[in-house]
Amino acid sequence: MQHAMPPLSALRAFEATARLGSVTAAAHELSVTHGAVSRQLRSLDEHFGVALFAKAGRGLELTNQGEQLQRDVGEAFARLRDSCTQLKRDVEDAPFTLACPGSLLARWLIPRLDRLHSELPEINLQVVVSENEHAFKRSDVSAILAFSAPPWPADVEVIELIAEQICAVASPRLAEQADPEHPETLFSSKLLYTTSRPQAWPQWANAHALDTALLDQALDAGQGFEHLYYLMEAAMAGLGVAIVPKLIAEDDLRSGRLIAPWGDIETSARLCLWLPRHVTQRRSVQLAEWLKRELDDTLLSR
């Protein structure tokens, strides 16, 4: 005597047919053909050794054995549907926590948070500060927004949003002392940089074909800061010329608090939205699309 469970697909076909009263309706709900449902029903008859449906005119009706199975299977599938619906609701209602560096949060995202909440209220966005890509070690982090360069880790899904551009910025008073046509003139000012991005000034100098010996001397006399936020504050206070991502300086450049007369260069880094692989959700896609629109608007307004 066969005691094994029949295939779940066959039980789904049976439950849908019994509930809807029609093979055609069941096939439509399950997105399969009429013949596929009929084959699943026949396989159940063979499995149990008894007919579960009988012809009634041009339709079907449950046999006594079919009614017995329908009571239990119908209740089981109803509980499964309720459980899946509740789980999906719980996931979508839970806060979507975005981790990003403090400078990016303060200088670019916070001025746009009100619009983000207004346009995507269903995301229930929460933001936390993280200065590196290891934020996924926190169980509550849903995504990371950060500048980073490939290759990407294999265990994350990376959505590239915009190429990174860096520029040398200074207060208006300090910038007046340098000649925009001769970028090397800024070496007479104190160079400011973040200790986490020592390669930024060399990248900028190489792109402008500047003397690396002069750069090294200027950096020896320069000043490093642990965080980009402090670096920009120092630049606005007139302490020197800072090398920064243009996106983060965007609002300060537009307001005139900072000036970048020497232009910008593109690096290999990208502003990316990092997502746990295999867990890409509707809210992640919505957030990525919103960020792309905002970044496009930023580029158009330059």
TrEMBL record:
Q: Where is the signal peptide?
A: none
Where's the HTH lysR-type domain?
A: 6-63
User: Pfam families, alphabetically?
Assistant: HTH_1, LysR_substrate
Which key words are in the record?
Answer: DNA-binding, Transcription, Transcription regulation
Gene3D superfamilies, A to Z: Periplasmic binding protein-like II, Winged helix-like DNA-binding domain superfamily/Winged helix DNA-binding domain
Q: Kindly give the InterPro entries that the UniProt entry links to this protein.
A: LysR-type_TF_proteobact-type, LysR_HTH_N, LysR_subst-bd, WH-like_DNA-bd_sf, WH_DNA-bd_sf
Family of this protein? Belongs to the LysR transcriptional regulatory family.
* Protein name from the UniProt record: LysR family transcriptional regulator
Lineage of producing organism: Bacteria, Pseudomonadati, Pseudomonadota, Gammaproteobacteria, Oceanospirillales
